[in-house]
Design goal:
heterodimer, A: 269 residues, mainly alpha, B: 280 residues, flat
Chain lengths: 269, 280
Amino acid sequence: MATISSGITAPASARSAWLDRWLTRARLAPVVTGLVILAIWQIGVSATLPDFVARPSGILLAIPSTIASEEFWLDVLLTLGSILEGVVIGSAAGIVIGVAMGRVREINWVLTPYIRALYALPLIALVPIVILWVGYQPAARLVIVVISVFLPVAVSTADGTRAIPKDYLDVGKMFGARTHNVWFGIALPAALPFIVAGVELGLARGITNAIAVEVLASVQGMGMSVFTKSNELNENASLVYVLCLAVFAVGVRSLMIRARHWLAPWYHR
Amino acid sequence: MLSRTSNETTERARGGESLAARVAHFRAANAWWIQIACYTLSVLLLIGTWQALGNSFGVLFVPFTTTMRRLWELLDSGPLLPALWVSGELYLIILAFNVVLGVVIGLLLARVALVSAAFEPYIYILYATPTISLVPFVSVLLGFEFWPRVLVGVLISIFPVLIGVAEGARSIPRQHLDVAAIFGSNERQLWRDVIIPYVLPYAMSGIKQSIALSMAGTLVAEFFLNPDGIAAVLLQGTTIVDSGWVLAVTIFIAALAVTLVGVGELVERYVIRWRQSAVG
């Protein structure tokens, strides 16, 4: 507690303030922590745990052989392809349903109970019933990704199109806007930042759920390989996959932030 | 045309001559009834479609009535209630860790520059990484027992609290702290009067999300580290290809999830009201 509040009430002691500033300004702190974490990991694992347990040097050595394998690229293609396909279908459906829910109260009332229930439900609970219906097939992964993306997109599009400033609608009415003009000419563009935020959330959930389906339904892909490689006591290769998934997830997230700035430059958060 | 002119007095007064305007007026005047009708229609539609589809699909999609009967069997004498206790214990412990660790780490991140600079990028990377992919490493290092499950669950559901608290504590206006300093607040007063009331709504919003998300954490932990609890019951239904069983458990989980989300909203509202009465 003392350390937390010392930063708030009074300037910390001169030496530590200097250290703080230097470390922060130089952006060195994350690098130092990263190196320390890696060092502890490397030394700790080498000293105490069996050979197959992943360690930084092992992962580094495993990268070339993993990336060179055909299997790796097939996995990447299958998983990422399925996620992208699901995102396209899920967002398209989510936008249409979302605009309808946002603009027509009655549609909103009819659909809200289901959307709310599905939104609350951890989607991993849907995996068994989807497997039962679709089979232990890649289609099960696609279905789950579509639902994962559809829900947040529909909810946030509905929120966004419902909350249009009244001025926009008045101006539209003055210029004789018809219903479809209001929906797609006013409501949809006004809701763009919301839609992007929904897609962003959906993508994050879609990636996680795609991996979950792969493991539960034994569908080939990156998530499945993380588990099989680990079970074959090849943890280093398995972590290369995790690393790629993390890079993909972080990359997609920063891409979405950029997309928001590009699509809705007026909207700042 | 005739009917429009017959009750023209009221319609004229509103200037609502067109059909669209009259529909709009009707919708506005009967909003409450229409809302009730919509909810009823929506429930009836689901049950009706389900019943009809179930009767025509056979084994893979049993009708609504069969599913409800199966749910009753599972609750009455089946494995569902014992599994609920197992999952409930795991859930509560995961949630407790989320709240305590999330608040502490969040405050550290926000108020200690060095901690924030050193760890923030890694916390965000961990947040973005699909946690499920870390499960095999947890199971190899720590096994399949209770605490590894808690770890997996916490990794999945701690972030709303952690990030919410960090954002809240970071956005405390400088002036509030300065005023507290000018009036000579000591540590305890500073926390009681400024920091905690300010961060509380942010923390509560995170906790509300975590109440729902901890359920996902619990399920993932149960699915992937030797199936146990409700997840095991769900998988059991898949194994014996009993769609009534799986549907019943899925609906049970959905009902639980909706309840938990409701509880989260109630808790948030209660705490916010307490804060308003306590701090003003």
